[in-house]
Design a protein that fits this description.
It is built from 17 helices and no strands. By secondary structure, it is mainly alpha-helical. Helix 11 packs antiparallel against helix 17.
């Protein structure tokens, strides 16, 4: 635990941490992407939903995502201390005790699932509960430290939110919702493996078996390229299935070409500083890629509602 070297820090510790530290436990940046993809699933779902009920559903999904983040930080506090990317999080930095994260995560988990079930339906609530369990237990406790395929299987947790949003409206899970899930699921490995390529030392120090540390850089770059090709191919499904139209089609094609170009460039780049820089570029581009695709789906729906499509 970090030393507390002034009276304000002592007061903060006595009170159990600052508000912003508790907010940080919820991983707000990750939560923002979760909320956005859930909104897309909710808006695209047939039948519509009362706006107030829809807002409650999105709030519950956000709270559930935050609960997952808190439980993750509780369990991973030991490895967070040795990774530069996570060392300043509230627990490893000594600003909050671990048990606060556990309590917060459990309370928010129960609250979000119960409220979603009461406000919408128990199919959506069950999916949200499974999402929290998958991320906190299957990924964080089991997969993350045991297999280099951790992010492939564990990526399902981040792919469930649009499915939860869809189920909140319809009470079911359709093929369209599964496609929304699949796009995020296939996006996750190249996104995180690109990060792992330029953060290898962090993961190595923490003892996390990320693919570059276990299989090497060449194998990782090949896997990134393979997943990128499959991802771009799957990204056209919304158009062929009719729930994505020309705005989405243009976005999927344009950004898909960009994604593939970076994946090919990374594959052809040797090791060293240039490889890490290309990996970082792909990682940052992948954030925009997913956001743009889901924004394009929303734009198509808006244009359809306005009668412009």
């Amino acid at each position: 635990m970090a030393y507390l070297d002034d009276s304000s820090d002592l007061q903060t510790h006595a009170l159990g941490g600052r508000v912003e530290d508790y907010v940080a436990l919820l991983k707000p940046r990750v939560m923002s992407l979760v909320v956005f993809t859930a909104i897309v699933g909710l808006v695209l779902a047939p039948g519509g939903i009362n706006p107030f009920v829809g807002a409650i559903a999105i709030l519950c999904i956000a709270i559930g995502a935050g609960a997952s983040g808190a439980l993750n930080m509780w369990y991973d506090a030991d490895i967070d201390r040795v990774m530069s990317r996570t060392a300043n999080r509230p627990i490893p930095a000594g600003r909050l005790p671990r048990e606060h994260a556990l309590t917060l995560g459990l309370v928010l988990s129960g609250f979000s699932v119960a409220l979603l079930g009461l406000a919408t339906n128990w199919v959506a609530a069950g999916l949200l509960a499974f999402t929290i369990f998958f991320y906190a237990v299957i990924y964080t406790v089991w997969l993350k430290r045991s297999t280099p395929q951790n992010i492939v299987i564990g990526g399902a947790a981040g792919a469930f939110p649009p499915m939860v949003g869809w189920a909140a409206v319809t009470g079911t899970v359709s093929l369209e919702a599964c496609v929304l899930f699949l796009i995020i699921f296939l996006w996750t490995p190249p996104h995180f493996w690109a990060l792992a390529l330029y953060k290898q030392s962090d993961y190595g120090a923490a003892g996390i078996p990320m693919l570059p540390n276990v299989a090497g850089e060449a194998a990782t770059k090949l896997q990134i390229l393979i997943y990128s090709v499959v991802l771009v191919a799957v990204s056209v499904l919304p158009v062929t299935m009719g729930f994505g139209r020309w705005v989405y089609g243009v976005a999927a094609l344009t950004f898909g070409i960009g994604f593939l170009a970076l994946a090919v460039k990374l594959y052809l780049t040797g090791s060293g500083k240039q490889m890490k820089q290309t990996g970082r570029t792909l990682f940052l581009f992948s954030l925009s890629y997913l956001a743009v695709l889901y924004a394009a789906l929303l734009a198509d729906r808006l244009l359809l509602v306005l009668g412009w499509l």
